[in-house]
Amino acid sequence: KGSNEESAPSVSANSIKITDITQDGETLTFAITSQKSSSSAGVCVFRTYEDFDWLQQSLLSQEDVPGLLGVIFPPLPGKPLPSTSFTQAKALKQFGFLALGDEWKIYCKALELYLQQVAAHTTLSKSKALSSFFSSTESPGKHRGKKGIFKRLSHVMEEMRKEGHKDVDKFFQSERDSCTHLSVLFKVSTEKFLDTVLTKQKLAVACGHFSTSLHLVCNHDNPAAVTFSKICLKLSDIIEAVKVNFEKVSDNDVSSMGLALDLESRYQEAKKEMLFRRTCKLVELEAANRNSERAKPNKKAIMEGVQKATQKEFNLISSVAKKEIEQYHRARVSVLRDFLVSWCEKQLSTAQETSALFSQHLEACRGFVV
Amino acid sequence: MSFSSVRNPPPFLDSEDQEPEYDTRELDSDDGEDIFTGSGNKLFAATPPETDPTTDIFSEEGSFTVEKNHPPAKTNGVQSDEELDLFAEATVELTLTTPNSRGRKEIIGPTGPLSTTMSTQNSLHMHNSLNKPLEELEEEESGDTFELNIAVTNPEKMGDGMNAYMTYKVSTQTTLPAFHIKTFSVRRRFSDFLGLYEKLSVKHHLMGCIIPPPPQKSVVGMTKVKVGKEDPSSAEFVEKRRAALERYLQRVVAHPALLQDSDVQEFLEREELPRAVNTQALSGSGFLKMINKASDAVNKMTIKMNESDNWFESKLQEVENEEQLLRRLHASVDSLVNHRKEMCINTAMFAKSVAMLGSSEENSALSRALSQLAEVEDKLEQLHQEQAFSDFFILTELLADYVRLLGAVRGCFEQRMKAWQRWQEAQATLQKKREAEAKLLWANKPDKLQQAKEDLTEWEAKVGQCERDFERISSTLRKEVHRFEKEKCRDFKHHIVKYLESLLRSQHRVVKCWEAFLPEAKAIV
Questions:
Q1: Exposed/middle/buried for residue A154 (C-beta within 10 Å: 0-12, 13-18, 19+)
Q2: Smallest CA–CA separation between A277 and chain B, in Å?
Q3: Which of B274, B293, B324 is the last residue of a domain?
Q4: Polar residues bias located where (chain B) (predicted)?
Q5: The overall pTM is greater than 0.80
Q6: Helix ranges, B143-274 (H)
Q7: Domain range for residue B343?
Q8: pLDDT interval class at B505 (50, 70, 90)
Q9: Which of B339, B360, B485 sits opposite A203 (nearest CB)?
Q10: Is residue B486 in some structural domain?
């Protein structure tokens, strides 16, 4: 039946956590805990990426949600491929920041955010597929449902032409323009930030080499040699501290700012897609208008019917879209703020720790008698 | 050691209001090497140089104490007061004079800015030179204490095109009686420095002494400078060379025997030096080739010295091992420096992209925060740049210097081996002469016998001389190695402390950057 009007108790978005990930060959399984908003009892389910994909497709293909085309769908991260089949470089290209971090930590966070966003969405949270995702003991992805029927943005010339189609509404036209512009800028920023993170990791590795080489200076033949060895070991410890600092700093980068940029980029894509769907509908509407005008008398009634229906759909989509865009702007600023604050706090804390550590080393070195 | 307690970096360096534009300060209290861009720190105007020429702006760390009977402490390079005038509007520090407990004037001042002919924008001038600690207090008490500070500054390009060359100002400040005046400076070019080394390395009485090798020649580097490319890399090259020349001279005068050498004193004092020729052999690779060729030749002769103790043999092995190790370390740090430079570039690009985001962002608080973030990243980029210079000038160059110094040590061992050879050969010749004399005795040829006897006397004297030479080289070498090893420990410790100080300074500034950004991020609604 799949009716969305059943008042099934919905999952509390804040309670959703991905608590574990296991890898079996090429398959990754995620352990997800959640609570219904009505109870404090926790539920844990195990899902693979197929299940997530099923969820997203189900959401996209809901039939009786008015103006569904106007919804900005929370973006699902791409399918993870375990490192056995991917080189680091490929993974970076495909997933950017989500490929970094120990053991899929960042990727899991992105998936978790996806679920939270779906569960928090006024329309999507009511979907039966969602509650089934969180409660069904069986893996829901096993039953492959309908694929989303919506056009995805592709680079086919036809699509490009439609994307540039002039809008009838100033609000939407300006949204489309700024979306295009901003998404390019965010992509660039994300790339540049990724470059800085990768360089920090290289620096950490270089420090590691240097630190290890210093250990090779160990000669105990005479007092001066012993002293020199000790000095080199001290330097080795210092370089090690520098290395650890780089690792922490880049971890902080990846887990806050990196994730934020990645999320922002993907969400902008989702918004772009929604606007494109609406534009396509506009093109369809304008075609229906023309058909209706030019229709021969025997077809006129049918054409007018089509025109009316299309107009109604378009209006519905536009009104949903407008609300969605306003919600998007609010949420986006709030999310970015949280990530920026968290990033700043983490970096500040790391910098203070490292400062204290260097201070200790300095005291020790100054006091070192040669 | 008095010096470490009297260091007082001027307060403004820690001030939060400062833009991270630091001028070139002396070692431990300075931060970076930002060039005098003129957008200087107006809070502190340069104090005009004092009229008394002897109260020069030499850093207190430069206090180089020369013990009459003990090996001297080190020098430090600093600026003479004339430089202050050139940079009156630039970020220049206060001239502080703080008398220390011993009543000597400790002076802290700016160091080594580039001459105004080099107008580059990049921060590249690094804190220069060694800062070797003073000699133990007890020793100071016993002997007469003298000071000698050396600075190499003010690179200037002379001439045009491919005949162009750089000259450097060599400033000396000293209380040693051997010098006629207390403060003086001369201009020298690179070949003069090489020439000095050449003169010292052939002196008989300096055999066995570890003579510091000069910096390496670089055809590529110099060509760029000659051609007149005023870009960051050629400015960097000149600065690298200036710093290297300074360290070279400081090591030379730190050696008790070399300090007393007339050629060294002439180098420091004399207005015009005759052009040094034959410095080709002493170009960097040439120098090392010379050493390596010598050791190959020696090895080929399979000299097996009869050592009474195997100290020399095992020490030479140690030296060779250490040289290899330091080479590796040098390569490691070099790679670190390159990554840091890459970091600078990447951070700058990220900062730009964030700035563009900030200006396109519609939400005003978010837009402001993003612009702030761009500035934070710019500051971080600057810190990376400075840290790269720290890495380079404090660690990389230290290691490079010691690789060359260890090469020089090996050279001394080879000198000793050659001396031994000469002794053996003299003994062999003496033996032949003895046999010849014996033969003549038998053959009963009195006139030839006289000649033979004279020959014998001559060669007995020669053998005696060779033996004394060998003994002397051996004992000198032993003492030198001990001195060198102690020196090396002090040097490394000193540089590590410097390095840590630069790391700590950097970290403090990073903390400040994030502290400043946090309220901006929180202000986003």
A1: exposed
A2: 24
A3: B274
A4: 113-122
A5: no
A6: 190-201, 219-227, 232-254, 256-259, 262-269
A7: 310-524
A8: very high
A9: B339
A10: yes
Q: Which amino acid is at A329?
A: H
**Token pair recorded at residue B63:** 């206090």
Note whether B164 and B230 are same-domain residues: yes
* Cα(B90)–Cα(B42) distance, integer angstroms: 8
Do B202 and B321 lie in one domain? The reply is: no
**Residue B19 included in any domain:** no
List alpha helices for B45-163, DSSP H. 82-86, 137-142
A22 in B contact zone (CB under 8 Å): no
Best to test chain B binding among A182, A186, A210, A252 (most B CBs inside 10 Å): A210
pLDDT in tens, B423-474: 999 999 999 888 888 888 888 777 778 888 888 899 999 999 999 999 999 9
pLDDT tops 50 at residue B387: yes
Dmax (CA) of chain A: 110
Q: What is the pLDDT of residue B296?
A: 58
Whether residue B215 lies inside any domain: the answer is yes
pLDDT at B380: 93
Range of lowest pLDDT (A224-233, B166-175, B239-248, B302-311): B302-311
Indicate the average pLDDT of chain B: 72
Q: What is the DSSP letter of B463?
A: H
As given in the structure block, the two tokens for residue B64 are 């180089």
Q: End of a domain among B274, B300, B318?
A: B274
One domain, residues B264 and B316 = no
Residues 341-360 of A with CB under 8 A from B: 341, 343-345, 347-348, 351-352, 354-355, 358-359
Q: Give percent of chain B above pLDDT 70.
A: 66
CA distances from A370 to A230, A362, A365 (A): 10, 15, 10
Check if A233 contacts B (Cβ < 8 Å): no
When CB atoms are compared, the residue of A210, A351, A358 closest to B336 is A210
| ipTM confidence score | 0.88
Q: Residue B474: what residue type?
A: S
Q: Are residues B214 and B321 in the same domain?
A: no
Chain A interface mutation, best of B506, B510, B522, B525, highest count of A Cβ atoms under 10 Å: B510
